[in-house]
Amino acid sequence: LTRELDRVAGADARRQVMAGAESLGADATPESIYAWTHDMLARMEERVPEPARKDVLNACGCWKGREDLKALRDLYASTGDLDLMLAKAGEELLAYLRGCGVSEETVSEVQRRGWGWPGRREGNMIRVTKIPFEGTIDAFFAEPDLAKRRSMNYCHCPRVRDILKIGRGLSTTYCHCSAGFYKKNFEEILTRPVDVEILETVLAGDEVCSFAIHLPEGL
Questions:
Q1: Strand 125-129 and strand 195-200: pairing?
Q2: The whole model's pTM is what?
């Protein structure tokens, strides 16, 4: 976060946004981490314009990595067929879930809904809905209460999971970090920029987190 703020917004903005970060050592409590994160986002929203905030947090997101995406990148490079690549990625995701011990009923439900990082293409957009964090997928689909589903480890970010469990709120600006996961994956495969829009997020009270990957013209 410090590096990306320097890159996008400059040193002055970085110092203002990151104020107090030095206190978050190994013994920092979840409450103090939450309080700093909440205030940091407020300072970022005040001092850094929205497009720049998005750029900063997109760059902070984790991703699958170049080696994990190599086969999909090569498939797309050799065929130019985006739908074929998405279908292959979807097959790999379902195989991964089965390997994690997820029930076949849940795997079928994930497939029916088109959930998971490859998403489902809708014209010049790919709509992606997150699957719950590993270890809670079967329980998520079995739980009828929407509020419980939101707080039962749905989010892949440990900070957000902790915040939801204690009933606190956090700006949805934070979700641009999650959007960065999809941005990095698709840019690695397509070798060109894509824009990712937040559509739904549990931080806004939605049942799930979903994103729109806006594809370049001509794909």
A1: unpaired
A2: 0.92
